[in-house]
């Protein structure tokens, strides 16, 4: 028990320290070139690793600062018939959206396309370049007395990146929580015939049917240059977090999105608790200048990150369920005690509700704001540090199916509650509301999005403790309840057959064929996901351990370590890698 308590302390240490660091070394550029700064390049995501752990290479990279330079970059690649992919400032997508494949492709970075183009206060329109961060977008809007009604919670995303993946916040009200629902105009650069100079700018506005293809495009139609948003007058929000037991959670989730405009719910399965966010619009005259500076998005001391990872690995590889569950309780307790980083005046938390202007409440991410401090502190996931390393899964279940799905999740939890402590350690399952969209690759129905973050080993093929419950939960959502995966998250297997769940997928592919008939902006991965050629599954020894496939044979797991392919416990059609101690003894 003493060893367990030491592990608990080192888990808690970095969390206690994060409130003392407002900014640290900003994340590295996801694009790295070795020769003249533009040749012999690699591109990765902000976590430093794609699901298949491969290194993505490209022959060259370009960093345009104007639309004219962007057109020239696309034209050059199209004329040479080189594959092209777009990289953003921080590249937060977990799948290989930014990888052109092979070694001869081109990376176009939008990091320097980050300016305001036009502000029309009377019409509440804001036009910006696609590389602008959400952080800067909401500030520009606020300075003009306007507000983007909804957004993701992390403000390190770019405008183009949010549109490419269908990024969203939480709401079923009005147009809903997806950022692309507020885009009323888009300028996109696409390949063209030689007679048109190999590249053209297409301008799309409300009423153009192609707008519904470009709004959520996975980056396969071209490079978005500019986006015009229709905003709202600046407003305030009132936020309160309430923790309850989870006994009535299926019924509560069915109603919560209709009761609170910005409401969400976080579930701590082992603790049997649900954290309900009561979040609503209030009059601008309501007192309060609250601020959301979420604890998990603040810079953390590098020493704390390193120590936390060592402790996590020891618990994962050698710890008992009891030790893991004790450690898992502390993050949630610590975050709750510090109001998750919300303050009533930007400095102190004095109690709920926290009332503040939309741009101060809707998103945060101060770990990207600091000056370089020689990596003494950084974002939690900075790949230059051997700190926390994790998977992120996200999938949306139609609201009509949510109560039954959540009841099944609870049934799975009740069979072995300690198996879910790993979820509690990462602050549980975050559930956000997303409204149905006209976008071809947007949500088909009003849905509840489930976000799960969990441990990942730095060593390929190493199983996670109780990985079977995570995999069964995901397969149950995707297969039994017809969930669709988040385009910017998930491991490979989640995308298998996903495109068939979108009734307008064929319409999207038609637009793709018109905009880019040579497939300049397509890759092996995007062709697999869009159902054009191949499968996103990578079948082989240990593939299910890495999330590259769903197991159908013991070899897809880790039989030499006692992990065998078995049916799910609640969803019997699931196939998961489950640890069987007696079989391991026999093998030995």
Protein structure class: alpha+beta
Please tell me the overall pLDDT: 94
Question: Rough shape?
Answer: globular
Unreliable residue stretches: 1-20, 584-588
- Helix fraction, binned, reads 25-40%
Strands ordered across the widest β-sheet: 19-13-15-14-22-23-21-24
Describe the structure.
- The chain has 588 residues and is an alpha+beta fold.
- The chain has an 8-stranded antiparallel beta sheet with strand order 19-13-15-14-22-23-21-24. A 5-stranded mixed beta sheet has the order 1-2-3-5-4, covered by helices on one side.
- α1 (2-18) runs antiparallel to α7 (302-318) and α6 (249-259) packs antiparallel against α10 (402-415).
- The chain is globular, with a radius of gyration of 23 Å.
- The two termini are 29 Å apart.
- The model is unreliable at 1-20 and 584-588 (pLDDT under 50).
- It catalyses: L-gulono-1,4-lactone + O2 = L-ascorbate + H2O2 + H(+).
- Pathway: Cofactor biosynthesis; L-ascorbate biosynthesis.
């Amino acid at each position: 028990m003493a060893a367990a308590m030491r592990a608990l302390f080192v888990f808690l240490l970095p969390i206690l320290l994060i409130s003392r660091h407002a900014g640290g070394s900003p994340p590295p550029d996801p694009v790295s070139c070795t020769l003249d700064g533009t040749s012999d390049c690699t591109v990765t995501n902000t976590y430093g690793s794609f699901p298949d752990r491969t290194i993505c290479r490209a022959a060259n990279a370009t960093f345009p600062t104007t639309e004219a330079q962007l057109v020239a970059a696309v034209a050059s690649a199209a004329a040479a018939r080189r594959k092209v992919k777009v990289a953003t400032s921080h590249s937060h997508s977990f799948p290989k959206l930014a990888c052109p494949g092979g070694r001869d492709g081109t990376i176009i970075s939008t990091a320097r396309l980050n300016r305001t183009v036009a502000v029309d206060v009377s019409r509440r329109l804001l036009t910006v370049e696609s590389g602008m961060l959400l952080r800067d977008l909401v500030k520009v809007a606020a300075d003009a007395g306007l507000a983007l009604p909804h957004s993701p919670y992390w403000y390190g995303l770019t405008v183009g990146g949010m549109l490419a993946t269908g990024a969203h916040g939480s709401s079923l009200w009005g147009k809903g929580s997806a950022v692309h629902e507020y885009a009323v105009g888009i300028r996109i650069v696409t390949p063209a015939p030689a007679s048109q100079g190999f590249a053209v700018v297409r301008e799309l506005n409300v009423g153009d049917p192609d707008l519904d293809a470009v709004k959520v495009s996975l980056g396969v139609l071209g490079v978005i240059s500019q986006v015009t948003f229709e905003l709202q007058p600046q407003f305030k929000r009132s936020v309160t977090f309430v923790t309850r037991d989870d006994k009535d959670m299926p019924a509560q989730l069915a109603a919560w999105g209709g009761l609170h405009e910005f409401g969400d719910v976080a579930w701590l399965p082992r603790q049997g608790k649900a954290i309900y966010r009561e979040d609503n619009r209030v009059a601008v005259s309501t007192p309060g200048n609250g601020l959301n500076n979420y604890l998990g998005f603040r810079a953390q001391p590098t020493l704390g990150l390193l120590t936390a990872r060592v402790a996590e690995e020891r618990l994962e590889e050698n710890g008992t369920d009891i030790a893991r569950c004790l450690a898992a309780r502390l993050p949630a307790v610590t975050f709750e005690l510090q109001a998750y980083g919300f303050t009533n005046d930007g400095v102190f938390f004095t109690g709920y509700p926290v009332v503040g202007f939309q741009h101060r409440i809707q998103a945060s991410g101060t770990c990207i704001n600091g000056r370089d401090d020689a990596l003494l502190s950084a974002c939690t996931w900075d790949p230059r540090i051997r700190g926390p390393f994790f998977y992120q899964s996200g999938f949306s279940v139609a609201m009509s199916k949510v109560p039954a799905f959540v009841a099944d999740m609870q049934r799975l939890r009740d069979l072995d509650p300690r198996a879910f402590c790993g979820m509690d350690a990462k602050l549980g399952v975050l559930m956000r509301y997303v409204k149905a969209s006209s976008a071809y690759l947007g949500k088909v129905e009003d849905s509840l999005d489930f976000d799960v973050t969990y441990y990942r080993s730095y060593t390929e093929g190493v199983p996670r403790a109780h990985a079977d419950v995570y995999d069964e939960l995901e397969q149950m959502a995707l297969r039994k309840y017809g969930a669709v995966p988040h385009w910017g998250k998930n491991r490979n297997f989640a995308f298998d057959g996903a495109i068939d769940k979108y009734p307008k997928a064929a319409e999207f592919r038609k637009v793709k064929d018109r905009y880019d008939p040579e497939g300049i902006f397509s890759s092996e991965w995007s062709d697999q996901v869009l159902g054009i050629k191949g499968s996103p599954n990578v079948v082989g020894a240990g593939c299910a351990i890495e999330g590259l496939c769903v197991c159908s044979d013991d070899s897809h797991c880790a039989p030499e370590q006692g992990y065998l392919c078995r049916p799910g416990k609640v969803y019997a059609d699931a196939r998961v890698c489950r640890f069987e101690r007696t079989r391991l003894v026999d093998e030995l």
